[in-house]
Amino acid sequence: MSLWRLPEPLCLASKSPARRDLLIAAGIPVEIRPADIDERAVSVPEGTRLALELAAAKALAVSRLLPGRLVLGADQTMSIGPTVIHKAANLAEARRILDLLRGRTHHLHSAAALARDGAVVWRGVDVAELEMRQFGDRFRECYLDAIGESVTETVGGYRLEGLGIHLFSRMSGDHATILGLPLLALLAALRQEGALEQ
């Protein structure tokens, strides 16, 4: 017997393996349909609002293609003080971002939005606080060499479920939020939408 009540799987408008794995571990069947949107075109200057807008834009883009389906869009942004940090375009930019973050605290804003028939039916966000340790230049270069070009695939240049864990001295917040999904709020929304057993 399954907790999932809909006849079709949840459509995930994201190619993030971490988000996919979180949903599958929670017993939610998933169909991956990455949204084709220009993330840089969404110009909101604040991390939480930007994450919400991007999540909604992804959910809506895919929802318009799949009538009647429940679509999940998700995004994560990073901020240090008032500055929003974006994914590095190359290795040199990743090095500058790591130099900016080391020894300091930053925030991850993980947002999700559910859409059906081209309309957002729910959106939510959660924030985690992470402190990057004060590592040396030699460690930084070893880290960058070990992860290679994948440093440009994630905001901040790290994946905590991999080698990125070595960068940190402290983390505060829900584990799923840190990985990119406000999972507890999402599960409540899916129950409200009738997609999960109450």
TrEMBL record:
<feature type="active site" description="Proton acceptor">
    <location>
        <position position="75"/>
    </location>
</feature>
<comment type="function">
    <text>Nucleoside triphosphate pyrophosphatase. May have a dual role in cell division arrest and in preventing the incorporation of modified nucleotides into cellular nucleic acids.</text>
</comment>
<comment type="similarity">
    <text>Belongs to the Maf family.</text>
</comment>
<dbReference type="GO" id="GO:0047429">
    <property type="term" value="F:nucleoside triphosphate diphosphatase activity"/>
</dbReference>
<protein>
    <recommendedName>
        <fullName>Nucleoside triphosphate pyrophosphatase</fullName>
        <ecNumber>3.6.1.9</ecNumber>
    </recommendedName>
</protein>
<keyword id="KW-0378">Hydrolase</keyword>
<dbReference type="Pfam" id="PF02545">
    <property type="entry name" value="Maf"/>
</dbReference>
<keyword id="KW-0963">Cytoplasm</keyword>
<dbReference type="InterPro" id="IPR003697">
    <property type="entry name" value="Maf-like"/>
</dbReference>
<dbReference type="InterPro" id="IPR029001">
    <property type="entry name" value="ITPase-like_fam"/>
</dbReference>
<dbReference type="GO" id="GO:0005737">
    <property type="term" value="C:cytoplasm"/>
</dbReference>
<keyword id="KW-0546">Nucleotide metabolism</keyword>
<dbReference type="GO" id="GO:0009117">
    <property type="term" value="P:nucleotide metabolic process"/>
</dbReference>
